[in-house]
Design a protein that fits this description.
Layout (H helix, E strand, L loop, with lengths): L1 H42 L16 E5 L3 H11 L2 E5 L7 H6 L10 H11 L5 E5 L7 E5 L13 E5 L4 H14 L3 H4 L2 E5 L2 H9 L5 E5 H10 L1 H4 L3 E5 L6 E5 L5 H13 L12 E2 L10 H14 L6
Parallel strand pairs: 1-2, 5-6, 5-7, 9-10
Antiparallel strand pairs: 3-9, 4-7, 4-8
Helix pairs in contact: 5-11
Keywords: Membrane, Transmembrane, Transmembrane helix
Pfam family, one: Phosphonate-bd
Protein name: ABC transporter, phosphonate, periplasmic substrate-binding protein
Length: 308
């Protein structure tokens, strides 16, 4: 009896030991996988600090954007996989930049110019065109108007989801009529989308509207019977679908200024961000300098400084 009892206790101990070893082994295995994942995340080559020839070493970049099509173009241009994250608001972006949690954000072309002017960091930045094609703003109307001067006192529709058309509009009006848009047009109304603005002109609910060349050409391809009834009376200078990048090793003070600007210089909604801001980028430049400078000159002349 004692021998059988001893054998049972021994078997129980052995089974417990086996189970303990299995649990420990499983725990170690999980920890190994976890640590491997952490190490992989730490060494993921997403920040770039070398010459442009080394771009293939970069696998992907994480950023905030509401314009996936721009990111697709940028990915193709740079050979870089870009992961687009779309937040509901832009309020959390500065903090995540501060903690290096993301690699970039999207802002507007005009904000790029303001950022350079306000912080005086021109030598520390370079611009990368987001896509091979530049962009333009069209001032369109029905066929009864042949020039900008014909629109005096008329009703204009301006898309509300973009700020930069208004700067170019002011330059067009000033060049043609030497006056400001609010004095030139009888009424200026906002539309949520560019397509809605164009339809308002087609339906004679407005006399003119602003639209990007890309949107207008898309509408021409899809509905030529409608767009053929419209007339382009003015075009803005071309401007790049730009990204803003900092050289590697820029000082901490500049980064703090940038984060402060991002915190106080933008609206709360993130859908209007159009310029990718990358940290730890030393040098790369894929853009037409003349095209960029001409568009920048327009913004500097007619733009307004951001307010807190």
């Amino acid at each position: 009896m004692r021998q059988e009892h001893f054998k049972q206790k021994t078997c129980t101990r052995d089974a417990t030991a086996v189970r303990s070893c299995a649990v420990a082994s499983g725990f170690l295995c999980c920890m190994s996988l976890f640590l491997a994942g952490v190490l992989h995340a730490e060494i993921r080559p997403i920040r770039y600090s070398g010459p442009v020839s080394a771009w293939p070493e970069v696998k992907r970049a994480d950023l905030f954007t509401a314009f996936p099509i721009y990111m697709e173009e940028i990915s193709q241009d740079l050979g870089l996989a870009v992961e687009a994250l779309v937040p509901e608001t832009a309020a959390q972006i500065p903090q995540q930049l501060e903690g290096n949690e993301i690699d970039g954000i999207m802002v507007q072309f005009t904000d790029l110019v303001r950022l350079q002017n306000d912080l005086e960091i021109e030598p520390a930045v370079c611009v990368v065109q987001g896509g091979q094609n530049s962009e333009q703003i069209y001032l369109i109307t029905d066929p009864s108007s042949k020039s900008v001067a014909d629109l005096e006192g008329s009703k204009l529709i301006v898309p509300s989801n973009r700020e930069f058309p208004q700067y170019f509009l002011q330059s067009l009006i000033d060049e043609a009529c030497q006056t400001r848009p609010e004095s030139f047009f009888g009424e200026i109304e906002s539309a949520e989308k560019q397509v809605n603005a164009v339809i308002s002109v087609i339906r004679r609910k407005a006399d003119a509207c602003l639209v990007t060349r890309t949107t207008f050409e898309t509408m021409q391809a899809m509905s030529p019977h409608l767009t053929n009834r419209l007339n382009v009376v003015a075009k803005s200078p071309e401007y790049p679908r730009a990204t803003l990048a900092f050289r590697g090793g820029f000082d901490r003070q500049i980064k703090e200024q940038v984060i402060l600007f991002l915190t106080h210089g933008f609206k709360k909604k993130a859908r209007t961000r159009q310029v990718l801001v990358l940290f730890k980028v030393e040098s790369f430049c894929v853009y037409d300098a003349g095209l960029y400078q001409e568009a920048r000159a327009i913004v500097e002349k007619f733009g307004v400084k951001p307010t807190d």
